[in-house]
Amino acid sequence: MDIFLARHGETEWSKSGRHTGLTDLPLLPEGEERARSLQPRLAGERFDAVLSSPLQRARRTAVLAGFADPTPEPLLVEWNYGDYEGITSREIHSQRPDWDLWRDGCPGGESPEDVRGRATRLLQSLEARGTASVIVFSHGHFLRMLCIVFLELPLESGARLNLDTAALSVLRKSDRGHLLQLWNDTGHLPGSSA
Predict the structure, then answer these.
(1) What domains can be seen in the chain, in order of their start residue?
(2) Which of 8, 19, 141, 188 does the annotation list as catalytic?
């Protein structure tokens, strides 16, 4: 089974570093351009399922990448940042210098264990479907959690995974086990030197 992961294109808050969980922001024009650049990159792939977070930034990325009717999957929504929604990590650290999303979660929002539970349920659902290849359009922190759950890594590993907007990654279940086939590929993006 191959699980392609596509992070949504850039929004005003992702550009400024503000935590964007359930706030349903549109893509910026450059976010739309980056999302469109996924289309030629994915043109030769065949997917048994195309799933998207129901939030517009992920759905729009899927459409611009060439998938006119992605199936909405609520498990794919971004981390609920609760009281930290719309503010930057710098602002949080000014009040809580030792705060770590992957350890502490967010007051009024989700804990790392909550998000791990959603990622686990999604992987179990994909396994039960028997899909050979699926693409999911989702969000930066959730996709990192999906990766660490798939690879059975400790929660704090998520802090070490960079994931750019409109980046492509691939998780693979093979006879060798669970593999990270591709991570944070941005070679398809406009102006990329890759």
Answers:
(1) 2-185 (3.40.50.1240)
(2) 8
Tell me how far apart the alpha carbons of residues 117 and 112 are, in angstroms, rounded to a whole number.
9
d(CA 175, CA 21): 36
Is 93 noted as a catalytic residue in this protein?
no
Q: What is the pTM of this model?
A: 0.96
pLDDT digits (tens, 9 = 90+) for 94-129: 999 999 999 999 999 999 999 999 999 999 999 999
Tokens of 105: 């979660």
8 catalytic per annotation: yes
Beta strands in the chain (DSSP E): 2-7, 49-52, 71-72, 133-138, 168-174, 177-185
Contact by Cβ (8 Å): 106, 79: yes
CA distance 143 to 68: 22
